[in-house]
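Homework-ish question, so no full write-ups if that breaks the rules, but can someone show me the predicted structure for this set?
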Amino acid sequence: SAVISQKPSRDICQRGTSLTIQCQVDSQVTMMFWYRQQPGQSLTLIATANQGSEATYESGFVIDKFPISRPNLTFSTLTVSNMSPEDSSIYLCSASHLEAFFGQGTRLTVV
Amino acid sequence: AQSVTQLGSHVSVSEGALVLLRCNYSSSVPPYLFWYVQYPNQGLQLLLKYTTGATLVKGINGFEAEFKKSETSFHLTKPSAHMSDAAEYFCAVSGRSSASKIIFGSGTRLSIRP
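A: Not a homework solution, just the prediction itself:
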């Protein structure tokens, strides 16, 4: 099994600022995924992060708004840029679908 | 393309009663199937998954699910509900390659009546 640590666990941010969320896995994984869970809703995939290449974004999500880094096989970051209240959500990272493990999430509130 | 449909956004059962949460999937390729649980203000926990082999999959906390290809279903059951089972449950599907993404259903909130 894989253990995934996400930081920060929660944050309150001012609109117009940016927040970078870190995701650390305790073993090497091929694929990492970033999801958004808006209040009372299911999980929506933002992008897939593969080490050594640019992230692949889902429809409705763009790199300028959600830049992702994947510098090695155990770490990834997601930045939420130029935040607005509509970005208030839980953001979760996941490591390699075959293991299907998730971090505890980052609860973001934009005021 | 893959998709998941969870029937019933809210299910309420009495403590000790059978729990049945329904999930149907659509996939053009043989899928992997998952059930996750999310307790209030917590992250996602994997309950069980089907990849290959036996179609009846047993998970944690007494839950199990059966993969029925002919019905494209992966319903979650538990013989006897406990108060601690109250949570949000998500069914999910993915393809079988390492690049496949997990697609989630809309979720079912399970309530347990004393």
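Now go work out the reasoning yourself. Hint: The two ends of chain B are 41 Å apart (CA to CA).
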